[in-house]
Amino acid sequence: MAFALLTSVPPVFGLYTSFFPVLIYTLLGTGRHLSTGTFAVLSLMTGSAVERLVPEPPEGNLSGIEREQLDAQRVGAAAAMAFGSGALMLGMFALQLGVLATFLSEPVVKALTSGAALHVLVSQLPSLLGLPLPRQIGCFALFKTLAAVLTALPRSSPAELTVSALSLALLVPVKELNVRFRDRLPTPIPGEIVMVLLASVLCFTSSLDTRYNIQIVGLLPGGFPQPLLPNLAELPRILADSLPMALVTFAVSASLASIYADKYSYTIDSNQELFAHGVSNLISSLFSCFPNSATLATTSLLVDAGGNTQLAGLFSCMVVLSVLLWLGPFFYYLPKAVLACINISSMRQMFFQMRELPQLWRISRVDFAVWMVTWVAVVTLSVDLGLAVGVVFSMMTVVCRTQRVQGLALGLAEGTELYRPLRESHKLLQVPGLCILSYPTPLYFGTRGQFRRILEWHLGLGEGGKEAPKTDGPPDAAGQPMPRCWDPPSPGSV
C-alpha cells in the first residue's frame, strides 16, 4: 500500500500488485530466494509517468466522483505500463536477450537503486509534512520538489508532522535492531505491522482525520478486481516509459537473483527470468496491477526469515489474500503519513550501499567512477535517464580498458615449462629469434592499431618494417621501463 502511493494510485492496488505477480513468479521463476512485487524504484518511475499522462486538474478541490474518475484513469495508465513492459520483456525473451544481464555491472545497479532511494525520500516529504503539493516530474525533479517543500514549509500540518516523527522514531530503531541482531532473532521484529496497528487505533480513537484533517487510507474494497484488458490505444503513449521500466525490472531482478544464486551455489536462467517477469507483468496488468519486479528489501527479509524456495512466495500471497478478503476494513483509519514513513524506512538498505564506496575505490577506480557517474545522473536527471547514462558510461569504460592494455614479453622459467613476463625476473630464458607476446584483450578493429604498434616496438621495428634503435620501453605500473623482445636481425636478413 505504501508503494502504491509512490505510483499515484489508491493503496488497494498495491495489494493487488503484491499478490498476482508473486503467485506467477512462484510458478515460472528460477530465483529460489527472490521476492517479487512492488518495488520502490519502479513505483517511483511509474508514478512520474502517471502524473505526466494523467495530471491533477489545476483548480484542485475535486469532488468525490471526479476523484474516482481521476484515480480510474491513473490506474488504467499504470496497468497499461505494466502491460507494455511485460510485452517488451517477452519480446526480449523471444530474441534470447537474457545475455544482456552480463552488461549490467554491479556498480550501475547499486548506484541506480541508491540514487532512486534519494528520489523516494524527497518525494515523500510532502506526505510527511502534510503538504498537498503536486509531484514534480522530468529532469531535476528532486531539486524542484525540495524547492517546493521549502517554499510551502510554513503551511505544513503539525498533526501529520507529529505522526510522521513518531512513526520514524519507532521504525528506524526497529530496522537497526533487526540488522544488528539478525543472527539472534528467530524472525525479524515486525515494526511496520506494529506501527500500522498503533497508528490506526490512535487515529480511530482520537478522530485525527476529522479534527486535524489527517489524510487516511479509507475504504479498501474487498475481493479482487474484474479482469480488464488495458486500453491498448494508450500503448503508443506509454511505450517510451515502458522500455526503461522493462530494463530496470530485468536489471534489478537478474542482478539480485545472481547474487543469491552465487551465495547459495545454484544457477539461474536469465532468459527464463525475462519470461517469468514478462508474464508476471503482462497477466497482472489485467487485474489493474502496476509494474513490478524483484525487490531488495523483501528479498533480504525473506532470506533472513529462512525462505529457500519459490514456495515462500505462496505464504506471502496467503497473507495478502487475507487482507483483501477479511482484514481490509481494519486499515480504514491508517494515516497516509505512516505509509510514507514505511516507504522511507524501507530505503535503508539502498542508502547504506554508499558504505561500499571506499572499498570500491581501493579495488577499482574505474568501477568507482561508473558508480559515481550513474548516481549523479540518477539524482540530477531522472531514474530512467540515469540508467541510460550509467550503462553508456560503463560501456565506454570497457572500450577504454581495451585501449590501455600493455603487451608483455614472456620468457621461460628455467627448469619449468612456465612462461612468465620478462619484467618479473632477469633469469627468464628467451629463445633466439622467437618473441612470445601476451596481449590480454580481444583483437578487433578498435585495438588493431595499438596491437601493431606494440608488436613493432617489441620486435624493434619502425615504420615500413625497418629496424629501430634500441630504447627503453614505456614505464610499467611501477614506473620501471618495460622489457621487450629484442633479437636484432642478422646482416642481409629482413
TrEMBL record:
Region (Disordered): 464-494
Keyword terms: Membrane, Transmembrane, Transmembrane helix
Domain SLC26A/SulP transporter intervals: 1-374
Transmembrane feature ranges: 75-99, 368-396
BP-aspect Gene Ontology terms: transmembrane transport
Gene Ontology cellular-component annotations: membrane
Subcellular location, record wording: Membrane
Membrane topology, from the record: Multi-pass membrane protein
InterPro entries: SLC26A/SulP_dom, SLC26A/SulP_fam, STAS_dom_sf
Coarse class of the protein's main subcellular location: membrane
The protein's name in its UniProt record: Solute carrier family 26 member 10 isoform X3
Gene name tied to this protein: SLC26A10
